[in-house]
Write a structure and sequence with these properties.
Elements: H1 2-9, H2 18-47, H3 53-77, H4 89-115, H5 123-145, H6 153-182, H7 187-197, E1 207-213, E2 220-226, E3 228-229, E4 235-237, E5 254-260, E6 263-272, H8 279-289, E7 301-306
Antiparallel strand pairs: 1-2, 1-5, 3-4, 4-7, 5-6, 6-7
């Protein structure tokens, strides 16, 4: 799109139409911002139920449109000097990095504002955006510089698609890191949850995923946990030392979801705290299943039963 806009603005009779050229550039930026915001909003919405997607998309669209215009304005407003030598590759790369830092920070701050009601640590998104966008801009610069005047349109389109895919991959990795940091879910835990949700089944005998909703915030907490099975078929889970998510499970029982055999299933969880008549037996059952687990003796045990009363 950048090459098409530049070529259009360079046409005789249109070079002087600064307002019209800027309008075209802003329009192109809004389209790209809408595409970016829609894609990111769709992915984030699957993980963050409280995300206000419309606000996220609008903010992304506006900031991307203005950023595109700011980055393209010098080229459109500058004097036409066809005989002058172009800037060096190093200077172009440094310029792309600078634009990426400014664009990434501005877009990250705006998107973090839209994300804040749905996450704990929105600042992680700003960091990820600031680090990712310089790389994205360099990728876009290289991709836009490759096509020559004698290239076929099909080759140009294929190059643009590959450039977009690579740039999108960089943003995707940054989003993946930021999502875990914002929701306080470590990257290793997210990887285990992905594996449990797959059809491989090689972790089913050791781990399950557990989803608990915050009592006050409504935010969901998804964690992989070890489990044991008691005589009645209920799952027994002992939270790791220092974990606090289990405090959202209250008596008599709380609705949760269990990632079991590749699918999230409704269940009910009950906290067996010290003093509960079933706590010691449940703890012994768990300790027999995991004899090397180093857990506090006074810890809580969660007893999880499936919706139909049979967890297995």
């Amino acid at each position: 799109m950048s090459r098409a806009v530049s070529s259009w603005s360079a046409e005789p009779g249109l070079r002087g139409s600064v307002g019209l050229a800027l309008l075209l550039v802003v329009g192109a930026g809004l389209v790209e911002g809408l595409a970016l915001g829609s894609a990111q909003g769709w992915v984030l919405g699957r993980w963050l139920p409280r995300l206000r997607r419309a606000r996220f998309v609008v903010v992304t669209t506006l900031v991307a449109g203005l950023g595109w215009a700011a980055g393209a304005a010098p080229a459109l407003l500058g004097p036409d000097q066809p005989d002058a030598g172009g800037p060096s590759v190093a200077l172009l790369v440094l310029g792309a990095i600078g634009v990426g830092l400014v664009m990434g920070t501005a877009l990250g701050l705006a998107q973090a504002w839209a994300l804040r009601p749905a996450v704990r640590h929105a600042a992680a998104w700003v960091v990820a955006s600031t680090l990712a966008w310089p790389v994205v801009m360099v990728v876009v610069l290289v991709g836009a510089s490759l096509p020559g005047q004698d290239w076929a349109w099909s080759t140009v389109v294929a190059t643009g698609a590959a450039t977009g895919a690579l740039a999108g991959g960089v943003l995707g990795l940054a989003t993946w890191w930021a999502l875990g940091s914002m929701t306080a879910v470590p990257a290793w835990d997210r990887a285990l949850l992905r594996a449990l949700a797959s059809s491989w089944g090689w972790l089913d005998g050791d781990l399950v995923g557990l989803e608990v909703r915050g009592r006050r915030t409504g935010r969901t907490h998804r964690v992989p946990v070890r489990y044991a099975v008691d005589a009645e078929g209920a799952l027994l889970v002992v939270p790791r030392d220092g974990a606090t998510w289990w405090r959202n499970v209250h008596r008599p029982t709380t609705a949760v979801e269990v990632l079991w055999q590749g699918a999230w299933r409704p269940a009910r969880a009950e906290p067996l705290v010290p003093g509960h008549p079933d706590r010691e037996e449940a703890w012994s059952t768990y300790a027999m299943r995991w004899p090397r687990a180093r857990l506090p003796r006074s810890g809580v045990v969660l007893r999880v039963r499936a919706g139909d009363g049979n967890a297995t």
